[in-house]
Amino acid sequence: MKKNQPFDSQPAWARAQSKKMGNPVSKITKVAGRRIGGALRAEQARQQKRKDSRH
Length: 55
What we know:
By secondary structure, the protein is mainly alpha-helical. It has helices spanning about 10-20, 25-55. The chain has a domain at about 25-55. α1 (about 10-20) crosses α2 (about 25-55).
């Protein structure tokens, strides 16, 4: 896993797209939405852990 890669780079556009178009690109939106949902939660927890371990 790449640790120093900015995580927001990919989900940023995907989140905006999924909000903009609900059904035209249903497959892409669904996959992206699911990936973002899980990934965002995991990433937030990861960053919180990193912050806690620093102190």
